Amino acid sequence: MAGALLGQGLALIPAAGASSAPQVAAFRGSAPARGGVLSPSSQADLYRLGPGDGLSLSFLDPSASMVSGAVTILADGTATLALLGSVQLTGLTIGQARVWLRDLYSEYLLRPDLTLSLITPRPVKVTVLGEVEKPGLYSLTSISATPVSAIQAAGGITLNADVRKVSLQRQPLGRSGRMSESELNLGALLQSGDQRQNPLLFDGDTLMVGRIDKPVPEEIFALGASNLRPSTVSINVVGEVKAPGRLSLPSNITLSEAILAAGGTTPWRAKTNDIELVRMNRDGTSSHEIFTLNYGKGVSNAYNPPLKEGDTVIVNRSIYGAGMDVINQVVAPLTSVGNLYYLYRNYSRY
């Protein structure tokens, strides 16, 4: 291999003898700090290479073009490189891998200066927990993996989510030591566009969305209008409404607005002080609350609560409506008997 490269004019340092493929035991340089809010430049430098990443390696020395080319990190965390053989790159940042390869190539090349860039990032697996609709493990495209995209993948936030307290837990470089933890304020991202609160996520990160027991009404609507929640939710509205059924409604819909979307209550028949809200909880249990319909009330957990995916609103019958149904059940058979008697009497004349 070396003879062929020499024939191409590549300046090589004579090797003292054959050696096994270099392996990375640990990076000798200092690792960037991983705690706290990250700047965009530090986010890019903290991307850790792993199996599936596609890289581009090129040397500043034109005579080393035969050594340049595409590099793919294999499932075992190594990449096969000209002159070097199998090299372990998993766990390094791009900057660390660049320095490491330059040191390794300095044993073979007179001018080992090189550039290393990420061309095809691998998917990353992120765990999303807390106040999201579908907590779990999600695979995201690493180039766009952020807390916002992770929360979107998890179905958006719940009505009890506190977006001002989102915990980001991350394994340090080298995959040893305690998990580092940073607190993000996505409220600042939504209100003032602070992108530092929406850093890049890496493979193995964990997001924990905090909980708030009494959401502020203004925050509920602000979150409903943001991309942290689904744009629509499916709500069942049944009972004494003009158009009962399953409705697709905006995510910031309230109890009274859902009833209006179903055509409103049927006059006289609806018991407006007996509106039931049935909600299925994530643990498989259900909650049941009674409200009095008041179109003049704004959003309020006590009087006009915001609805979530899968809620069922039941508008019960009034005493008048129930009484009319009983009368109809009694009168309808009598009417049928009267009609039969009328037909029989008319037929018997012939």
Distinctive features:
350 residues, alpha+beta, Outer membrane lipoprotein wza fold like, 3 domains, five-stranded mixed sheet, 8 helices, 24% helix, elongated, disordered N terminus
Fold blueprint:
Elements: H1 2-7, H2 40-45, E1 54-59, E2 69-72, E3 78-81, E4 85-88, H3 94-105, E5 114-120, E6 123-130, E7 136-141, H4 147-153, E8 161-170, E9 180-184, H5 186-192, E10 206-211, H6 217-225, E11 232-239, E12 245-250, H7 255-261, E13 270-280, E14 286-291, E15 312-317, H8 319-348
Parallel strand pairs: 6-10, 11-15
Antiparallel strand pairs: 1-2, 1-5, 3-4, 6-7, 8-9, 8-10, 11-12, 13-14, 13-15
Tell me the Rg in angstroms.
Answer: 33 Å
CATH superfamily grouping of the largest domain: wza like domain
Largest β sheet strand count, sense and barrel closure = 5 strands, mixed
SSE string, helix = H, strand = E? HHEEEEHEEEHEEHEHEEHEEEH
Overall tally of structural domains: 3
Structural class: alpha+beta
First-to-last CA distance: 117 Å
Q: Judging from the principal axes of the Cα atoms, what is the shape? A: elongated
The CATH architecture name of the largest domain reads 2-Layer Sandwich
Topology, number of strands:
15
User: Helical stretch count?
Assistant: 8
CATH class of the largest domain: Alpha Beta
What is the CATH third-level topology name of the largest domain?
wza like fold
Mean pLDDT: 79
